[in-house]
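Aim 2, interim progress: modelling of the S-adenosyl-L-homocysteine-bound target.
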Amino acid sequence: MNTNTQTEQQIIREETRIDKIIKKRKKKMRAQVLLCPTITAYGRLYCAPRRLHRYNSSSSSSQFLNLNLSRFSGALFFHMESGTGSSGKRGMVENLKRYGVISSKRVAQVMEALDRGLFVPVGSSAYVDTPVPIGYNATISAPHMHATCLQLLEDKLHPGMRALDVGSGTGYLTGCFALMVGAEGRVVGVDHIPELVDMSIKNIEKSVAASFLKKGSLSLHVGDGRKGWQEFAPYDAIHVGAAASEIPQPLLDQLKPGGRMVIPLGTYFQELKVIDKNEDGSIKVHTETSVRYVPLTSRVEQLGGF
Ligand code: SAH
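Predicted structure of the complex, ligand included:
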């Protein structure tokens, strides 16, 4: 082999090496952000479903900077917006759209209309994609989880339809349901902690959903959500905001034929199940994603150690 050929081969090898480095760097730039907001409840770590969010390689640098990663409880956090008020919630929804969590225009409109800032404890980050502790060993779910559940139930939340929110907590999702089904519809929230129900009523009263509460198409009750809420059954949509070890039979009974229930199932390892009731009363179940919710349990068990 003459010296020229050797040099050419060296150059080719060097180019290949540089190509590989560039490819690796590009891959890194399409940063895969492991979205796993983690929160402690019941002395255990709880986190929202893991989702991989990829940057579009054409993202502008300002978009890039907008995603502010920080560490908390050893997990990566995804700060969607540092603003407050309407700009904060708009930023939160815009980011959920940008990262492919929200694809529905209606869901985007509703989450923009109902200010999450009115539902989280004072001083906490309302527009960050993470669950927030609300006391009594409970949390308000992360915005992407609210968005996911709203989208899964969207077809059963048309004006005039009926929805049940079990484990209504802060009342945020219950309020979203009310905006979607309107004054002709009926929305019921049930939580077994009286203080949380009082708080959720106050939250709703400050929000754009207040008129539904006043006129009676939205109501929030203290009760064991595992029994559902018979008074306004059957429901087109049932959402369960806490993880059950098995599907409570009363909830299946209160689901309308043609209706849909979204419920996290499991203890440590949990999955978000979507249950469709066919017109003949039979049910079809599919798994949406892995999740981490606080348990659907008794009041004593939940408050243990409080
Ligand atoms: N979806 C709500 C709250 C989620 S936290 C939000 O985002 O604000 C789960 C809620 O389920 C808590 O408020 C807890 O009190 C409630 N919960 C747990 N077990 C329950 C039961 N058996 N009956 C009613 N509510 C229950």
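The longest strand covers residues 255-266. The longest helix spans residues 3-29.
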